[in-house]
């Protein structure tokens, strides 16, 4: 079933406003939330963006390792490639819905481990730099929440 929209008029009079109603398809008894088009779209957007970022990290590995060194991350020459591969696998796992709970929890672990180290806005003196790090920190916090939600849905849909 698709998202349906319709405009209806309750009167022939031009004085009365048109009412817009939207119906979003709910899962049927034979269908779980994971089988809906909106959920699949959400999975592809969420996991796809994270997989893309992981590939970008791997393509620019020396730069990413240098930045992690600058931020004081532990053993960046080992942790940056490993975390990037983990993020790639997690993103693809969510997109393809293969081992989805493990994939989503892997993403959550990546975000929980890297966000406070790489986006430590509270340690920044420059107001512009502080604001940029805070934006990235909050973005990652939202992604962390989404990863937890995907993990919960995955566990429930077994």
Overview of this protein structure:
It is a single chain. This protein is mostly helical and 158 residues long. 66% of the residues lie in helices and 6% in strands. The chain has helices at residues 37-59, 61-71, 76-96, 100-118, 127-156, and strands at 4-8, 19-23. Strands 1-2 form a two-stranded antiparallel sheet. Helix 3 (76-96) packs antiparallel against helix 4 (100-118). The radius of gyration is 21 Å and the shape is globular. The two termini are 23 Å apart. The relative contact order is 0.11.
Compact description:
The chain is mainly alpha-helical and 158 residues long. It is 66% helix and 6% strand. The protein has a two-stranded antiparallel sheet with strand order 1-2.
Main features:
single chain, 158 residues, mainly alpha, two-stranded antiparallel sheet, globular, disordered N terminus
